[in-house]
Amino acid sequence: MASSCFKQQPLSTSIFSNPQPPYKYNLLHTNFTPSPKPEPTLVLLHYSTTSKNTSILCATSIDPPPSPSDQQPSPSTDVSVEVASATRDRRKIVRVAWEKLVRWSRSLRLKANTDVLERTNKVVVLGGGSFGTAMASHVAGRKEQMEVNMLVRDPQICQSINENHCNRKYFPDHKLPQNVIATMDAKTAFTGADFCLHAVPVQFSSSFLEGVAEHVEAGLPFISLSKGLELNTLRMMSQIIPQTLKNSRQPFVALSGPSFALELMNKLPTAMVVASKDKKLAKAVQQLLASKNLRISTTSDVTGVEIAGALKNVLAIAAGIVEGLDLGNNSMAALVAQGCSEIRWLSTKMGAKSTTISGLSGTGDIMLTCFVSLSRNRTVGVRLGSGETLDDILSSMNQVAEGVSTAGAVIALAQKYNVKMPVLTAVARIIDNELTPQKAVLELMNLPQVEEV
């Protein structure tokens, strides 16, 4: 807007000053005229006050608003257009990536070999506990014509499975497939078996296997579901099974990963890992077990899978103690992170791959066992932190918490491989009644500050 002022007589004030009222503004003339092209408009204003010799005449040129065709896009409009374009591009990238993934998945499924499942007629499951029952149910559901024999020692469980098609002790509300049969006779269970799922707790595995060894074929693949270390010998299941059966070439596979038996029974999505030095055997077990609700990955790192599976139970007791003492989320996160590092230090010293510890059978299983109330080992820790004695806790449980026995073996392993494991060692001392949970926390907090590795 442009303006000009024309003086009349000597002026004592200006339009931009603050004259004292009363004052008036009079519109003298405007040149608003229709025109094909808008022109500037001249507005004449007369300003006067009551004082003599004081007046001013102003001419003001007002530019009309531009026509819609002359308007330029505002910065905000440009930004909105750019954001919308970027969003469309991002969605397209995500959609294309997902479509490629789906095509790749379909391609692999079409190429997948199902010969193993087709030619498997019988599977034997050792143990009638919760996880053994869940896996027996899962395998039986893969093929109706397959016979799944559960070798159990409890006559009541045996009767419950055969007469009522359920394991009343662990899953009274879940019906088992008709092709799951329980037996207490080892010869009946092993005769004609194509695979064996070992679900006996680690500390009882040697004695159990010694009692059935004569009925085990030399080439029968063992799939170990047990997680832990034998207390006195520090052996893993990959050592216990072939040594007890007196067959160093007994085919062996370790199955591990974040998997609660109850959720398997409920057919909820689950992912696990099969570990074997024999890649062909690992693939065969993958074909046998993988289904729409159970995803199976394979690895050759047996040591990493077994050590992570054993030590995570001890760490879960520590996490439970933190919960029982009500120490808060900060300490829980710090403790579990430290425990994960300790597991990685020891396992890599024993020859495991660090990537295994960060995968399903490592971090995945650790998170499940440390943070979820269904965990038996975490429950033991919570009750210890709440002030209960270990004897009272164990006597009230109908399932085995492997971490209680494994904790003592951890210290021996740490000394053998010269690895400092303060959190897991503290759990072992609490289990041995040499340290109270409260005192253990104080001692851990007073450890020297060191550089994180």
From TrEMBL:
GO terms for cellular component: chloroplast; cytosol. Residues 58-77 are annotated as: Disordered. It catalyses: sn-glycerol 3-phosphate + NAD(+) = dihydroxyacetone phosphate + NADH + H(+). InterPro entries: 6-PGluconate_DH-like_C_sf, 6PGD_dom2, G3P_DH_NAD-dep, G3P_DH_NAD-dep_C, G3P_DH_NAD-dep_N, NAD(P)-bd_dom_sf. Residues 301-441 form the Glycerol-3-phosphate dehydrogenase NAD-dependent C-terminal domain. Residues 122-281 form the Glycerol-3-phosphate dehydrogenase NAD-dependent N-terminal domain. It holds the Pfam family NAD_Gly3P_dh_N. Its EC number is 1.1.1.8. It is found in: Plastid, Chloroplast. Pathway: Phospholipid metabolism; Membrane lipid metabolism; glycerophospholipid metabolism; Lipid metabolism. GO terms for molecular function: glycerol-3-phosphate dehydrogenase (NAD+) activity; NAD binding. The keyword Zinc does not apply. Keywords: Chloroplast, Lipid biosynthesis, Lipid metabolism, NAD, Oxidoreductase, Phospholipid biosynthesis, Phospholipid metabolism, Plastid, Transit peptide. Belongs to the NAD-dependent glycerol-3-phosphate dehydrogenase family. This is Glycerol-3-phosphate dehydrogenase [NAD(+)]. It comes from Ambrosia artemisiifolia.
